[in-house]
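WARN retry 2 of 3 for item q-0093 after timeout on previous attempt; input resubmitted unchanged.
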Amino acid sequence: SAKPSQSPKPSESTKPSESVKPSESLKPSESAKPSQSPKPSESTKPSESAKPSESVKPSESTKPSESPKSSESTKPDKSPNPAESPKPISKEIPVEKAEDGTIQVQGSRFVIKAAEKAFEIAQNIRLAETDLTPENSAEQYDKAKETLKEYNPSHIQLIDMRFIDEKKEELQLLDKVTITFTIPEGYNPEKVAVARLHEGMKTAQVTEKYTLYETVIADDKKTATIETDQMGTFVIMEIGKNEALMGDLDGDGKITLKDAQTTLKAALNLLGLDNGQKQAADVNEDGKVDLKDAQLILKRSLNLIGTWK
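OK item q-0093 returned
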């Protein structure tokens, strides 16, 4: 019966003690791997949500703070631009041929007449008219007043006129044309004169900056007519009183025998004067140029008198 004492085999249930395998649930202790949740501590990567903290890029929304560009919305600050003066308006007027063979152009404030030989070409000629006003051309008005200051103009009006071809290239005149301007309302016809800025011409009183034309006032006092062989920016002005101009008909800045002779010839109807010269010659301001004016200018040129009275 010693065989039953061989029950040590059940003691070999040390195999159950081999249920240390459950103690091998160290693997759960190897759930130290969860304790290796340092990787979650490596959730420093979330803490690397420093990248959100790298939302310094939003702080790089200093780019919005770079709204200096919006300060470049100073361009809207140029919103004065809408308030700036309007641009001059130009229009093209067709050139018409009259029955007598002359060329005619009817503008808003003028009529131009010319012989056909005045142009290099015979067809597709137009007149480019630009109406200049103090609102749309303030700088040009200031320049005109400065250029013509010796005439002390009390009123001026500017208009730019140029003949062009179908390619919109300016045509030079080969002959004189006649331009009749409507005298603006409120101007004294007796003191109206017409000038062209910039270029000079051979047959008019010329300075470096402008041409003053001999201006013919119509009997009805409504129009002023000139002849010119050059187009450009014309000035219709009313000459104001200017003591410095009185007696100086040739515009040389002094009163000489030559001015007295010119006045004498005009008084005797031996030559015509433009409105600027008439203003200068009428030194006693009686509204006409006569022998009395010629005598006064002669005496002043010889230093016999110091005033016109």
